[in-house]
Design a protein that fits this description.
Layout lengths: L42 E7 L3 E5 L2 E5 L2 E7 L2 E7 L7 E6 L3 E5 L4 E6 L3 E6 L6 H39 L3 H23 L6 H4 L2 H33 L3 H21 L12 H36 L4 H20 L13 H35 L3 H24 L5 H24 L6 E3 L2 E3 L28 H7 L59
Antiparallel strand pairs: 1-4, 2-3, 2-9, 4-5, 5-6, 7-8, 8-9, 10-11
């Protein structure tokens, strides 16, 4: 679980050799070791202090005047008191994890516990090499325990600093606070792992909790970074800046993935979660849901607009909804940020298909509205209201320009034919605009090289607008998707799926699946073409000579 991020620094001393002999000032049977140690506990050294030991706590000091044997094992230090020749009369156990410091210099050995108690044992003047090895070993353990206590304080401080810097969005300082303490902790863990025969768990069990505490703070740093990127992404989506929003959502996802990976360092080996661990996992799960919710917002809006359009009878209102759906599906594709579609708000192929369907409906509706606007312009111009005629005709051109745009994007219909029609209609609009600006209703107008007065200058589409309800299906004329689109209904049809499949001009062919009686089979109307859409030049934009 622990990572060793650095080797032992130059200031660290090598651990001393471990003594395999038991030294004692008693006879071999002076102390019954099995009576004071566990079966699986290994004794490393024993010596006797005839002067006893001193126990000091704050201002209180107590001396044990009887002989005391100090037993060093691979788990703890034992003080065994004897009275004369009797068996041990008292035993005190000091585990290594309870040590706060050791000092073996001079004439006594001083052991300080984490509770503030100090044990002082006189040292003999004549010390054998084996005895000196034991003292060096205890000094080494004391140094590690002192560093562990210092590291505990530093982890606590770093945790607070990381939290404060994260709230201030100062990610670099937060990261620096983590790295400094992480390096110190790694170095300590490495040194503790070198100690034999004392195990890591016996010497510094708190390092596990310290590492989890530090990594929780580190994980939360990435959670906060992901939340900040997500908030910016949500703001950009609301303002329809989808390219930048995609970058922010991608960044939020990356930070979320990092936080999820880092959370493994704080997970218990038994997979049981409680307290801070459970809270951290809950926050990670909530963050994942938030990212998916924000990423799904465009497709949610697109689907809602699509459903609403299907129940609208007004072509203009239905068009607004279909345009919203069309752009929404496009934004979803813009927000895709990985190859496996994770957190992608839907199957890309389905989104592309829905976008194409929306484009088909837009084409059909705009062709219908273009016809309506042009005919309204013709009525206004016939009534002498040239200004309103100009306004309606210009709107008709705008509708067909959008049809041309979609036909070009989806490679549908005949974009060049639509472009030609738009050019002829725009010519009529330009002539009408000059006529309105001149203010002289008697002024002759030039259209395609011919002279016309203002009366009847704008010719109507053939017939009038089609009815808003779908025609009855017959064997000769299948149901038209263009009619359904005019009512906003999203029904399955037998069309090719191409937007503007009716030639992209609002005209229909006798042979296609949409039906159309007034066509010549080429996608061109036999009569009543808008703005002079004729083959031989005889069928020019409508006008009447005075």
């Amino acid at each position: 679980m622990y990572s060793v991020g650095s080797s032992i620094s130059g200031s660290d001393q090598d651990p001393p050799d471990q003594p395999d002999v038991v030294t004692s000032s008693w006879e071999e049977d002076a102390i019954d070791l099995p009576s004071v140690t566990a079966d699986d506990e290994r004794t490393r050294a024993v010596w006797v202090s005839p002067q006893g030991v001193v126990r000091a706590e704050e201002d209180e000091q107590r001396r044990v005047d009887v002989e005391v044997a100090m037993v060093v094992t691979d788990r703890r230090i034992l003080f065994v008191a004897r009275g004369g020749d009797s068996p041990p009369s008292g035993t005190y156990s000091l585990t290594y994890s309870d040590l706060a410091g050791v000092s073996g210099e001079g004439t006594e050995l001083s052991l300080t516990t984490t509770g503030g108690v100090v044990w002082r044992i006189p040292l003999p003047e004549d010390r054998s090499p084996a005895f000196q090895t034991v003292i060096s070993h205890l000094n080494w353990l004391g140094a590690l325990r002192s560093r562990a206590r210092s590291c505990e304080n530093n982890v606590e401080l770093a945790t607070g600093e990381i939290r404060e810097h994260a709230h201030a969005l100062d990610w670099q300082r937060a990261r620096r606070s983590y790295e400094e303490v992480r390096e110190q902790l790694d170095r300590l863990i490495c040194d503790v792992q070198l100690v034999e025969p004392v195990t890591f768990e016996e010497l510094a069990p708190e390092l596990t909790a310290l590492e989890r505490q530090l990594e929780r703070a580190h994980t939360r740093l990435y959670i906060e970074r992901a939340k900040a990127a997500l908030a910016m992404g949500r703001h950009l989506i609301e303002n329809e800046e989808y390219d930048r929003a995609g970058d922010q959502l991608r960044e939020a996802q990356e930070f979320y993935d990092s936080a999820r990976d880092l959370s493994d360092a704080v997970r218990r080996s038994d997979a049981f979660q409680f307290g801070p661990q459970r809270e951290l996992q809950d926050d990670l799960e909530n963050l994942g849901w938030e990212i998916e919710t924000v990423a799904a917002e465009p497709i949610r809006q697109a689907h809602e607009a699509k459903i609403e359009a299907q129940f609208l009878d007004d072509p203009s209102a239905a068009l607004d909804c279909w345009e919203t759906a069309f752009w929404g599906y496009g934004h979803v594709l813009t927000l895709e940020w990985d190859d496996d579609g994770r957190n992608f708000a839907g199957d890309p192929r389905e989104v592309q298909r829905d976008r194409r369907v929306a484009a088909e409906r837009i084409v059909a509706l705009r062709e219908q509205l273009a016809k309506r606007e042009w005919n309204t312009g013709a009525d206004c111009q016939e009534a002498g209201d040239d200004a309103n005629a100009l306004n309606h005709c210009a709107k008709a051109v705008d509708h067909l320009e959008r049809v041309h745009e979609l036909a070009t994007e989806f490679d549908a219909g005949d974009p060049s034919a639509i472009e030609g029609r738009i050019g002829r209609m725009r010519s009529v609009v330009d002539q009408l605009n000059e006529h309105v600006a001149g203010g002289d209703v008697s002024e002759d107008l030039q259209v395609d090289g011919e002279t016309a007065t203002s009366a009847g200058f704008v010719r109507r589409y053939e017939d009038a607008e089609p009815q808003d309800t779908a025609p009855q299906e017959t064997d000769e004329q299948p149901e038209s998707t263009g009619t359904h689109a005019s009512t906003g209904k999203d029904e399955e049809t037998g069309d090719s799926g191409e937007p503007g499949s009716q030639g992209g001009t609002g005209e229909q062919s006798e042979q296609d699946d949409h039906g159309g009686a007034n066509t010549d089979g080429s996608g061109r109307s036999r009569s009543g073409e808008v703005a002079g859409d004729g083959d031989d030049g005889a069928d020019q934009p409508s006008y009447s000579r005075s």
